[in-house]
């Protein structure tokens, strides 16, 4: 029965988003078809994040699971159907009247996510301080950006063993321990506040989660100097009076960020929904935090919990996933060629990627020496790399390229053109 459930779950996972358009390839992609173990489309080879796949419900379930068993349970609710945790996104809709000659009309803007603060004006001001193209207004480029970052920064397979490919019982156990550890030690959600207001609160002692008494120092300044300016922890520029700042509890409330500066230290992207991971004085998105803790397989994009894995071309791979990017054949002990940082077996390289010699018009074997000039290629032999007029071998010689032809001298050029 358990096996049937797992098979059903896996099948449903591959059916999810089937046929969804690729936002990058447009009409060139026939529609999303998830590879069996890679996190890419079988049709266009683009990642899941490039397709319009995940629905808001699926996104909210993923984030809900991330916040489960953490101090952020106030941001989730339990579904009545199966009791699964779901993210309670703060959605803000603004309705502004537009002046008209006769009847008044209204301009409605909906933010698909906004900071969960009681003061709506504060939340709206926060959104205005983000780059226009990254503001998650429904139906906009910014909403698509947020959706893409949810997939990229918070991969479901970084927190849920059920989303991974064929983990052993021991690997599942290790992953569960790893997820529990980062929830306890690194995971956090940014807090939007006015620095002036928080500074007044900082003088009062408070209790932390462990019930211990602690005192927070003055925000962005030295204690005892309430008039000190508030400087962004990232760009070091001063905050503008009246503008909201983002705080990260795990970093301490003596640090603050401009809304547009609250980014991952590796990819420099806005931390989606202000979800951060704090480690050694730096902010990370979920993906790049995990990368600092565990090797990630370049084939399936999952973290590696096995003691045995291979390293090739500066990347890590599950032993079973060091495969040809085109046909999925295992490459251990085989000749392969790297194409756009992806390994490709020799037959697939010749079939899909090999260049053609301008001299003999045959495919150039990946192991053969060749000469490249601009977009043209030749076998590095006296039979192919030669003057198009007199037939002189040009290896190690000066030459003049003319529309894909090679010429050894001005004389040959004149003869050919006459």
Walk me through what this model shows:
The chain is α+β, with helices and mostly antiparallel strands. It contains nine helices and 19 strands. The chain has helices spanning 2-15, 56-67, 120-128, 141-153, 169-185, 195-201, 286-293, 346-353, 410-417; strands spanning 76-78, 85-87, 92-98, 105-111, 187-189, 191-193, 206-207, 213-214, 245-247, 275-279, 282-284, 310-312, 315-317, 336-339, 342-345, 370-373, 376-379, 400-402, 405-407. The strands form nine sheets. Strands 5-10-11 form a three-stranded antiparallel beta sheet. A hairpin with a 5-residue loop joins strand 7 (206-207) and strand 8 (213-214). The radius of gyration is 28 Å and the shape is elongated. Mean pLDDT is 86; it is low at 1-13 and 206-227.
